[in-house]
Design brief:
hydrolase activity; Rossmann fold; eight-stranded mixed β-sheet; hydrolase; globular; Epox_hydrolase-like
Amino acid sequence: MRCTYSSSNGFVRYGVSGSGPPLVLIHGTPWSSFNWRHIIPGLSEFFTVYYYDLLGYGKSEKPEGDVSLGVQHDLFKALLNEWQLEEPIVIGHDFGGTTALRTHLLHGVPYKKLVLIDPVAIGPWGSPFFTHVNQYEAAFRGLPDAMHEALVSTYVQGAMYQPMPEDTRRGILHPWLGSTGRPAFYRQIAQARQRYTDEIEPLYASIRMPTLILWGREDEWIPVEKGRALHSRIPGASFCIIPDAGHLVQEDQPAVLLGKLLPFLLA
């Protein structure tokens, strides 16, 4: 990513690829735009694809302050203004789906179409690991480098159904290593709060744009039952389960994911 946007909370790195109608990709936690690399080329054949790293993630700035879902939707709205996009297609995974929903429902930002991939959208959510980090963030920040890398590596590999290739593991881990990345990893977990979805859950019935919900059948982070519950709350939404895929559908089954996306996006 060669472009930088400077916000009041810190700088954000982004990239643009392809030509055609605008489409924005929003990643989740603890991921980055790196995890879209398999589908950006296919989408770029038909769309101008905008992708970025959330504040506190990837190659974006990792400030000491707020990087929670409470600021990500404000940042996304600012980015859309920076890019001069009035009604883009938006695809969000995990916290990226939450950010897309909050930006639309709280700021009234319109999208042409919305795709949600295993989003954090229906409470209760948060793993025992999240709870533990919330209680002992300072202790986790002090882990030796090797122990931290082993912990994060084990954690992220649980998001895939297929064995995680070594280059994928390294690409995911890289932003979370070192004196800046290590505290940033625990910071974003410690700031995760269910209230950010609780305040928008009652508004899902007001969504009117064409919406597609995709879910990895073997998702052990957010079970497919959450997807069915979300589907029942968004009028007219389509719902599709992707087999042999965990939470990281874009890593487990990128070709299948692209095959589900394009007919919906091009219709």
